[in-house]
Every structure is written in C-alpha cells, then in structure tokens.
Amino acid sequence: MKLNELEILEDDFDLFVALDDSDKIEFLFDATEHGTEAAVVKHVSKLADKYMPKQPMVATEDFVVGSTRLCVTTFRDSEIHLNSNSLKAIRRFVAKVFNDGVLLWPLDKKKSEFDIYRFFKAYKIIGRVGPFCEN
C-alpha cells in the first residue's frame, strides 16, 4: 500500500473522519487499490446502512368490491391496512382472507393522510393455515 501517492480531498476527508478505526484502515486500503471514489461510495453506503432507518416496503392495491373500491396496503412487517368507503366491503375482504387461511389480528391504528376513503381498519397477519370451509 503506497500512502504517499494517495490523494484525499476535503470532502473525502470528512467521510474519513466519520469512520471507525477499523473502517479507516479499510478505507485507506480501498482507496489505494480501487481509487478514492470507489472507496467513498463503498463506505458511504456502509454508513447509510448503519445509521439510516430502514424504510418499510409497502405495496398498495385497489380492488373493486361490489360497487365500491377497497384499497389494501401491505407492509413488510406483516401488517395490512384496509381503506374503503364501505365498511361492508372491508368486512367481506377480511372474511375472504380469513376463509383462505390467513389469520388476522385487529390493530388499534388511526387513519393517516394517505387513507383517502371513509373507513379504515388495520390488521396484523399472525399466521397462515389451510383454507377454512364455510360449511
């Protein structure tokens, strides 16, 4: 490793100061082997993974239930938010999901500014089993 040929600019040095001792050694090694820019990119992503909060992965889908719309939002942590202008549509969807073998636990959550319909229900998926028979 030839440190006398290494050029670290002011912005790169700010990152270098923020690193732990072992990460500083790794940064110097990466900078000499792969270049300063590659080392900066690598260690900025490591710092981001360490200090930035994980954003929940969200999937939203709209369904037509009868003559109304039902917005189903699912989160990575097995949480489902149901939002509709019809409480009957929400109940029918929950009954359908339950009959398909998905066990839900109601959550006491409030509607957010993203829930544009009148009724809101939140559930936690606590398990999956075989489908239930309606008879």
Protein architecture, described:
The protein is an alpha+beta fold and 135 residues long. It folds into 2 domains: 3-51, no CATH class; 58-128, no CATH class. It is built from 4 helices and 5 strands, in the order αααβββαββ. A 5-stranded antiparallel sheet has the order 1-2-3-5-4, covered by helices on one side. Helix 2 (21-34) runs antiparallel to helix 3. The longest helix is centred in the N-terminal third of the chain and has 16 residues, at 36-51.
Order of helices and strands: HHHEEEHEE
* Main sheet: strands, sense, barrel: 5 strands, antiparallel
Question: Rg, please?
Answer: 25 Å
Distance from first to last alpha carbon: 75 Å
Tally of discrete structural domains: 2
Give the spatial strand order of the biggest sheet. 1-2-3-5-4
Tell me the fraction of residues in β-strands, as a range. 25-35%
Which structural class should the secondary elements be placed in? alpha+beta
Low-confidence stretches: none
Counting H and I runs of at least 4 residues, what is the number of helices?
Answer: 4
Mean pLDDT, as a whole number? 83
